[in-house]
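Posting for a labmate who doesn't have an account.
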Amino acid sequence: MYNKDVSIAFLRSSLTEKNRFISTKGLVDWIDECKANTRVNVEQTSFDKLDKWNFDSKQVALQHETIFIDDGSSDCSYKELLRLKSQYPGDCIRIIKFTRNFGQIAAIRAGYQYAKGKAIITIGADLQDPPEAINQMLAYHHTQDTPIVACYREQRDESFFRKITSKIFYFLMKKLCFSQMPYGGFDVCLISEGVRDIIITDNDTNPFWQGQLLWTGFEVKFIPTSRHRREIGKSKWTFTKKIKYLIDGIMGYSYTPIRFMTLLGLLVSTIGFFYAIVIICLRIFGQISIVGWAPLMIVTLVLSGIQMMMLGIVGEYLWRTLDQTRLRRSFIVECVLE
């Protein structure tokens, strides 16, 4: 058995979202993000599974604390959390209520800030990622003193569309930003207290969470897991949100967009230069009998499209720079119930 306590924290959205934390060496913090659309799912995705989570902490003789984050839920989730707090008085439940919905990454950040343990584990409350991985991560952390232990998805029991979009997402992140990023990606992760302290001081306005962890440069141990099909509710991690998150990662940790603009500009300029030489030569030797407007319109439209695309990329950087300089908070806590 381990001689160090572990703090477990979970973050998730009761009906939709998906992440939890486990923080080790002191206290187990279970941080739960609640954005449910139906009351029953708060209980179904959390306390119906509580015994399954408790066996992990009991096996290693750990104390634990459960922290729920109400991330701007519009239904009766907050009242349900109050009921659960009174129903499980011995589980050291804390409730953190946001003033509105600030998003999954903001809730993760809040979980890191409020967790009291020496290590923190994030894992989805929908149980698509196996909770058995907790003990594996704890073993590596305690026996090998590994600061970051992540579970990458070796297999996924999901739809073809989700599989292919996930592969494309993490393929791009691996090629453009982080060579150590596993192709299956990861959401289940243990980090040490030192890594946590670095993450919470990173004031990136549009953060890419996995990238923040890999960027620190600490040793990372990857463990293969299988992602199960979602049993309860429907994920709100939509295709649009994935695209936005992908842009956050690329813009935050890669120079590829700017370099692409430069290379594309050089390529178009080179083609235009040689095309101009060809046109001049044909004109000199009388090979151009009819001067039409169609080629001119095609060239104008293509070049205008390229220019607009480049302006869009520059505008994306400018907007992110402006957003960063505003120094707005990642989230606002309305109340904390101990």
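Reply:
Got it, the structure tokens are right above this. The mean pLDDT is 76.
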